[in-house]
């Protein structure tokens, strides 16, 4: 075992390497009670993610409910053009009243439990989402929502999404029909509290799969955040979220902010003109292209539900909310990879950068190389805004509320819109000014807690002029490590075994490796593993480093060049920040040594090798837990596997012997 760079300090049986830039952050305990702690992933693919028979495989006929309506798109388009000129939130859907309960769906039994399933269709719809006015799931149940093509799947939706007001809104699902599947192994479908009161029916593109323009139809001069221009902004982009508002019919953008207490309170900055029904807003993080230049979208986004309005003021068009569906102290939510951006009240920016979701598109970044200038807004106080004229990229309808960052990567305002009288309302790549409400002016705002930022961003009363960005604790718990890899954390990292802070998984496997409770943390013999954090590494009980392992933990800056939280660099390859949990490995103290999959990714044919003295069972699972390949009583320690008959996507390989288990992700391209 090797320790580098810092002195080891034993504190109550815990070994620490600590350089604490903000000691106070370690002393503050957040006592805020969150109404809903809902984090649900939505998976996108170019090919079906689940079998034709559905998540809970059945050939039973699906009950169908038609909610088609006649829509005059010409009227809506004329309204949208005027809304764009008036800086109103981007609209992509209309609300359709419905009356869909358990009785309207189909119920059937499986050996595992009862399933309720319904197909909801609206002819000509570009997308659909569901608004439940009655929603309460028991702990034993789970639910999925997906499109008819099965290329977009949201779930699992569990009891953790239950809100005190009994409501719930799903993500926006591509297509003119979607399917809801509800499963309860306790056989209580008839008692399910489920009622769909509205459907948000899309009439223009919001999410797409065919070409770049259909993602959200942003203009050609936009820059993808995942391209070279966005690389230095990898921390800030993790704080940016697309917002689904007005019962999933309109779009804005916003940014999670740090505060002087650095207590990870989920404070979210957006525009005042986006407000309305914020208690039912959906916050979609990590919605970005999979690679630079991609012409189709595939990936995973993380959606948090509901928020509370804390303060707003029309003079600078700011609104500050608390995302009540996000709990930064919940082990499961920490896996979402959300960051908190720093901010500045300094009034001398030398350049400006906007990170946003134009027209609901994947995340973009725009640059103004000149200094933003102080400006006003018609009918509002002078010098209440920053005036920005972008040199590279632009902002559009849907970018409203997005943050303006200065040259030091600190938020200095949020997008209000444009005052340019020559703006056509359609071609955003025209040269026009963009106005951002100034954070320094919003600091005191209207003079009360409900109309200013000061009390919320500076709860300690320090009168700070700026804060740094911060990220939640990165946790490596209950895992088994082999091979040569480096694991990183922007700020703080914790290594531990036998942790039980994860929720019980739903009744079926998921699109990622669900963290396992109560297992030790094992670095296997022969492993060459480095853990690197920017501020602190804490090693807790349950960590096992076996003989022959090269184990290092050290403090060093972690930035975009070294990958961010949960980033892994080494012979096993890098991992995507938003999908890091796919790469978690689970095992016990007798975990299989020298487990390897080669090549990975692959075309469907790959070799698995491992070390074990007892026969093994090998299973390959698809995205929702169906076994697509298996072999029992394998005596040799290598096996060639062929899943070329399966669609492209992410699969899990599981090896189990008499007393050991190992799981790893494999990508079939």
Beta content comes to 35-45%
User: What is the overall number of helices?
Assistant: 7
Helix vs. strand class: mainly beta
Rough outline = globular
**Which residues form runs of ≥5 with pLDDT under 50?**
1-36, 208-216, 505-514, 566-593
Question: Using DSSP, what is the number of strands?
Answer: 48
* Arithmetic mean pLDDT: 79
Oligomer: single chain
Q: Separation of termini?
A: 38 Å
Task: Give a topology summary.
Blueprint (H helix, E strand, L loop, with lengths): L1 E2 L5 E3 L2 E5 L4 H5 L11 E6 L18 E4 L6 H13 L4 E2 L1 E9 L4 E5 L2 E9 L5 E10 L5 E6 L4 E6 L10 E2 L3 E2 L2 E8 L8 E10 L9 H5 L6 E2 L9 H4 L2 E6 L4 E8 L9 E5 L10 E4 L13 E7 L2 E6 L4 E5 L8 H4 L17 E5 L7 E5 L4 E3 L9 E4 L14 E3 L5 E7 L16 E5 H4 L11 H4 L16 E4 L2 E2 L2 E6 L2 E5 L24 E3 L4 E6 L2 E4 L3 E3 L4 E6 L12 E3 L22 E6 L6 E7 L4 E6 L5 E8 L3 E5 L6 E8 L4 E8 L1
Parallel strand pairs: 1-40, 5-9, 32-35, 33-36, 34-37, 35-38, 36-39, 37-40
Antiparallel strand pairs: 2-3, 3-38, 4-12, 4-22, 6-19, 7-16, 8-9, 9-15, 10-13, 10-14, 10-16, 11-12, 11-15, 17-26, 18-19, 18-21, 19-20, 20-24, 21-22, 23-24, 25-26, 25-29, 27-28, 28-31, 29-30, 30-31, 34-41, 42-43, 43-46, 44-45, 44-47, 47-48
Would you give an account of this structure?
This protein is 6% helix and 38% strand. The two termini are 38 Å apart. The chain has seven helices and 48 strands. It is mainly beta.
């Amino acid at each position: 075992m090797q320790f580098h760079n810092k002195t080891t300090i034993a504190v109550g049986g815990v070994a620490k390497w600590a350089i604490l830039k903000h000691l106070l952050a370690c002393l503050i305990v957040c006592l805020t009670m969150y109404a809903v702690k809902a984090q649900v992933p939505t998976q996108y693919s170019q090919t079906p993610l689940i079998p034709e028979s559905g998540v809970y495989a059945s050939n039973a006929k699906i009950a169908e409910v038609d909610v088609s309506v006649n829509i005059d798109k010409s009227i809506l388009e004329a309204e949208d053009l005027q809304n764009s000129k008036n800086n109103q939130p981007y609209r992509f859907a209309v609300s359709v009243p419905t009356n869909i309960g358990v009785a309207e769906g189909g119920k059937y039994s499986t050996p595992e439990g009862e399933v309720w399933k319904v197909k909801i269709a609206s002819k000509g719809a570009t997308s659909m989402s569901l608004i439940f006015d009655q929603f309460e799931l028991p702990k034993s149940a789970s639910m999925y929502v997906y499109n008819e093509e099965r290329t977009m799947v949201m779930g699992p939706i569990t009891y953790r999404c239950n809100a005190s007001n009994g409501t719930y809104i799903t993500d926006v699902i591509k297509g003119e029909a979607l399917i809801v599947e509800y499963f309860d192994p306790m056989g209580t479908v008839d008692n399910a509290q489920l009622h769909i009161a509205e459907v948000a029916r899309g009439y223009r593109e919001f999410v797409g799969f065919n070409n770049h323009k259909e993602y959200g139809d942003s203009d050609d001069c936009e820059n993808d955040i995942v391209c070279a221009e966005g690389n230095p902004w990898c921390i800030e982009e993790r704080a940016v979220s697309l917002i689904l508002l007005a019962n999933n019919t309109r779009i804005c953008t916003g940014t999670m902010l740090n505060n002087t207490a650095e207590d990870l309170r989920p404070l979210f900055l957006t525009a005042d003109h986006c407000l309305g029904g914020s208690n039912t807003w959906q916050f979609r993080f990590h919605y970005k292209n999979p690679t630079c230049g991609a012409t189709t979208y595939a990936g995973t986004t993380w959606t948090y539900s509901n928020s509370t309005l804390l303060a707003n003021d029309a003079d600078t068009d700011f609104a500050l909310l608390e995302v009540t569906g996000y709990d930064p102290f919940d082990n499961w939510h920490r896996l979402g990879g959300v960051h908190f951006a720093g901010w500045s009240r300094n009034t001398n920016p030398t350049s400006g950068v906007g990170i946003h979701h134009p027209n609901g598109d994947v995340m973009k970044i725009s640059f103004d190389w000149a200094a933003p200038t102080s400006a006003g807004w018609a009918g509002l106080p002078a010098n209440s805004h920053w005036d920005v004229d972008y040199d590279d990229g632009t902002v559009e309808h849907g970018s409203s509320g997005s943050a303006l960052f200065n040259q030091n990567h600190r938020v200095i305002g949020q997008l209000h819109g444009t005052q340019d009288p020559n703006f056509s309302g359609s071609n955003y790549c025209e040269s026009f000014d963009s106005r951002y409400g100034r954070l320094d002016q919003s600091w005191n705002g209207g003079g009360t807690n409900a109309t200013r930022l000061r009390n919320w961003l500076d709860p300690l009363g320090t009168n700070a002029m700026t804060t740094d960005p911060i990220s939640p604790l990165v946790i490596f718990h209950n895992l088994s490590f082999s091979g040569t890899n480096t694991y990183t954390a922007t700020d703080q990292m914790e290594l531990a075994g036998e942790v039980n802070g994860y929720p019980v998984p739903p009744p079926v496997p998921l699109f990622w490796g669900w963290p396992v409770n109560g297992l030790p943390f094992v670095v296997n013999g022969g492993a060459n593993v480095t853990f690197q954090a920017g501020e602190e590494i804490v090693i807790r009980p349950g960590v096992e480093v076996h003989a022959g392992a090269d184990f290092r933990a050290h403090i060093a800056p972690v930035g975009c060049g070294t990958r961010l939280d949960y980033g892994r660099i080494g012979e096993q390859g890098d991992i995507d920040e938003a999908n890091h949990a796919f790469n978690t490995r689970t095992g016990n103290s007798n975990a299989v040594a020298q487990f390897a999959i080669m090549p990975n990714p692959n075309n469907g044919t790959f070799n698995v090798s491992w070390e074990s003295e007892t026969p093994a069972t090998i299973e390959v699972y698809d995205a929702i837990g169906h076994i697509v390949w298996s072999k029992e009583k394998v005596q040799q320690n290598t096996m060639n596997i062929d899943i070329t008959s399966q669609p492209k996507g992410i699969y899990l390989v599981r090896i189990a012997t008499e007393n050991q288990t190992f799981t790893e992700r494999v990508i079939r391209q």
